[in-house]
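Open question from group meeting: does this chain pack into something compact, or does most of it stay loose? Before anyone orders reagents, we agreed to write out a predicted structure and look at it together. Recording both the input and the output here so the notebook holds the full record.
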Amino acid sequence: MTPADLENNPKGIRVDLQLIADMIEPGTRVLDAGCGNGMLLDYLWRFKQVDARGIEISTQGVQACVSSGLSVVQGDVETDLKDYPDGAFDYVILSQTLQAMHEPREVLEQMMRIGKRAIVSLPNFGYWRLRLYMMFKGRMPVSENLPYEWYNTPNIHFCTIRDFVALTQEMNLTIERSLFLDEEGSSKTIGNSVAVANWFGEQGVFLLRK
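Structure tokens returned:
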């Protein structure tokens, strides 16, 4: 689906992107780091009237964003976030990308520096089906949400929901809101139920502040 499709089908946005959008206040300044084809930015611009900016490393993604009228620059999230001033945005978003960063903690620190809040979504490698896949097949899991083989996956830091919560504690970050998506695509609050979310959640979505 492209931003152009969204105009005729506003409810067609991906579930995890909808959860992120629901965490953002209208009329705010937002940076989507690794924005892909701009689907989330387009939604936020159309329906929440945000000042939406993006960074995307792929030429194809940038072209898709620019052709949709979105304000996106080509760049590498891992190296280019340091060029933004402190507190430049109300929200900085990193969707399904943290596990592909070489220095995920450094990226998260930069997000918290340039944004008043950060929103991170990530696949949960502690999900029970992935654990059983490893146990019974003895191979790296391949699923609808993790469609890559071990030799071509962009995911280099395999992280569970429990791992991510531990990292936020080490960094003294406050989790304002946290949700997990189960295999049916239903969202549930994580709160203090990290163990449950770590077992049953395919994805986690976190709203963070310092």
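Observations to bring back to the group:
The chain has a mean pLDDT of 92.
The radius of gyration is 17 Å.
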